[in-house]
Amino acid sequence: MRRINAHAVLIVNAIFAGIAGAILILAPTSGLFEDIGLPIAEPEIYAQFAGGLLLVFAVLLWEAPTDPVLERHIGRAAAAANVIGGVVLALWLLSGELDTTGSGATILWIATVILAALALLESRYLRP
Length: 128
Hints:
By secondary structure, this protein is an all-alpha fold. The chain has one domain. The protein has five helices and no strands. Helix 1 packs antiparallel against helix 3 and helix 4 packs antiparallel against helix 5. It is globular, with a radius of gyration of 15 Å. The two termini are 23 Å apart. The mean pLDDT is 90.
């Protein structure tokens, strides 16, 4: 099996974080959450704030492969963030307390699997 390029994983993570960040910033004002069945964050400022942080993190992930030291530090942070995000999301989904309809739960499960896969692939940055 061919080894997956570490730089490519960070770029894929940057794209995922950028898309998630944009959705979180725009969704409360556009009605997107209701349209696809995702739970509404109340107050909406929390979702928008998280979206802004994800967009900044996406920029760091995108730039990380240009500097070996930055890549290692950002890779570690990304692995940890993806584990935390995936676990929190999975626990909420398993609790049954999320107000999702239609495809909302499916979208959130797909996001959970993506976070887990990225965490696994970025775990190489956690090794000494």
